Amino acid sequence: MTQITTETPGVATAALTAVDRCDSCGAQAYVRATLATGELLFCAHHAARFKEKLAGTALVWHDETSRLLDDRGA
């Protein structure tokens, strides 16, 4: 099984913004899964749902779901 990494050395990963939308439901995306064929964006719910299935093929799993907890204190 390929290990999903959160960072790729030498590759800058742009932060996700409110413009980035989940490919499954259209909610704000907090996870970017980079595959050999392109990228998928997911909300926290769909990222959790598909993470295990994508573990074998994702090259990078850029996860910003911690921002959901950070935003609560603001």
State the separation between the terminal residues, measured CA to CA.
Answer: 39 Å
Q: How do the SSEs run, as a string of H and E? A: EEHEH
Query: Number of helix segments?
Result: 2
What does the largest sheet look like? Answer: 3 strands, antiparallel
Query: Which band does the percent of strand residues land in?
Result: 15-25%
Name the strands of the widest sheet in spatial order.
2-1-3
Number of strands: 3
Radius of gyration: 12 Å
Shape: globular
The overall average pLDDT, rounded, is 86
Low-confidence stretches: none
Global structural class: alpha+beta
Residue share in helix = 10-25%
Short description:
The chain is an alpha+beta fold. The protein is built from 2 helices and 3 strands.
Q: Can you offer a commentary on this structure?
A:
The chain is 24% helix and 19% strand. By secondary structure, the chain is α+β, with helices and mostly antiparallel strands. The protein has a domain at 31-72. A hairpin with a 2-residue loop joins strand 1 and strand 2 (38-42). The longest helix is centred in the middle third of the chain and has 11 residues, at 44-54. The relative contact order is 0.27.
